[in-house]
Specification:
Shape: globular
Largest sheet: 6 strands, mixed
Strand content: 15-25%
Number of strands: 11
Number of domains: 1
Order of helices and strands: HEHEHEHHHEEEHEHEHEEHHEHHH
Distance between the termini: 81 Å
Radius of gyration: 22 Å
Helix content: 40-55%
CATH architecture: 3-Layer(aba) Sandwich
CATH superfamily: Bacterial extracellular solute-binding protein, family 7
Strand order of the largest sheet: 7-6-8-5-9-11
Number of helices: 14
Length: about 325
């Protein structure tokens, strides 16, 4: 008879433990990067940080490698509340908020720290306001690097070398306009489909930062890398606005802090990779060429004219912010 109270107590403790665990809210964070990419590692770091600052009340389930669909599908799922968060892409986001595409105007930023100063200021606030009007909240800007052109068999030493080149781009209209201005034949394609498309010969080349080129092993397929530095792209970290607005202030602060901390790591990795990967890929058989970027800048100047007409105030603010941040 004396055993019964102890049995009841143990059962009650187990039940309480199960209830506490069951009450922990799960955050699904989806992204399209594979293992080894800084975005992949930063997402996992975010998942490790959140339970600590939320006292176990929040957990994170990371869905990497486009397992929740491509970037556009992840944005739709985030807005609809199917998933809570996504570390997404500038190209896909520009289909929802066109001003995002302006970050990729040709040769706008001289280096990564300049970009980060711009995005962490008024320009980032403007983009967040526009994004909230479309059902999402920007939690942070991780990095997706300054981009370069790769080709299966030759360098792009001058703009004329891109004439007629079949090149894969992300879906953003600005990127397509850049390569059309250079005389190439650009076409958008989902990131997850790119290696197969390059191997099949559907494209002669593509453009990406060194980090993405290396982690996706694109330098093994397109080993001729021309360091054009033609544009920048960010990795916006987004939450569904309805879900975000339903969180307590404490949980919002925890998520914001964790995105920021993971972002410091991710940006640092991007900066380091931008310096070190050239030597690494050279050892693995890739070939590099530096070019006179002035010729490429001149050839793409018309892209600014087009978007100054469409998004005049934002483009003016963005160019002024980039110039100020570069000083």
């Amino acid at each position: 008879m004396r055993i019964l109270p102890r049995t009841i107590a143990l059962t009650a403790i187990a039940t309480l433990g199960f209830s506490a665990s069951a009450q922990a809210e799960e955050i699904i964070l989806a992204h399209g990067s594979n293992a080894g990419n800084p975005r992949f590692d930063a997402a996992n770091l975010f998942a490790e940080l959140v339970p600590g600052c939320s006292n176990g009340e929040l957990t994170v389930n990371v869905a990497p490698s486009a397992t929740m669909g491509d970037d556009a599908e992840m944005l739709t799922s985030t807005t609809a509340g199917v998933i809570q968060m996504t570390a997404n892409s500038q190209g896909a986001m520009s289909q929802v908020v066109p001003e995002f595409g302006m970050l990729g105007l040709p040769f706008l930023f001289q280096d990564l720290p300049t970009v980060w100063r711009v995005l962490d200021g008024d320009i980032g606030d403007q983009l967040d306001e526009l994004t909230q009007a479309r059902g999402m909240k920007i939690i942070g800007f991780w990095d997706n690097g300054i981009r370069h052109v790769t080709h299966v068999s030759e360098f792009m030493e001058t703009p004329a070398d891109l004439d007629g080149m079949k090149i894969r781009t992300p879906p953003g209209r600005v990127t397509i306009d850049i390569f059309e201005a250079l005389g190439a034949n650009p076409a958008p394609l989902a990131w997850s489909e790119l290696p197969t498309a390059l191997r099949s010969g559907a494209f002669e080349g593509q453009e990406n930062p060194l980090t993405n080129i290396y982690t996706a092993k694109l330098h093994e397929i397109t080993p001729y890398i021309t360091m054009t530095g033609h544009k920048y792209e960010t990795t916006p970290v987004l939450a569904g606005l309805g879900w975000w607005n339903g969180l307590s202030d404490e949980h919002k602060a925890c998520i914001q802090q964790s995105v920021d901390q993971a972002g410091w790591y991710q940006r640092g990795r991007s900066l380091i990779d931008n310096v070190q990967l050239r030597d690494v890929m050279t050892e693995e058989g890739a070939k590099f060429m530096d070019v006179d970027r002035a010729a490429f800048q001149e050839a793409t100047a018309s892209v600014y004219d087009k978007y100054a007409d469409e998004y005049g105030d934002f483009v003016t603010d963005l160019r002024a912010a980039a110039a100020a941040a570069a000083r």
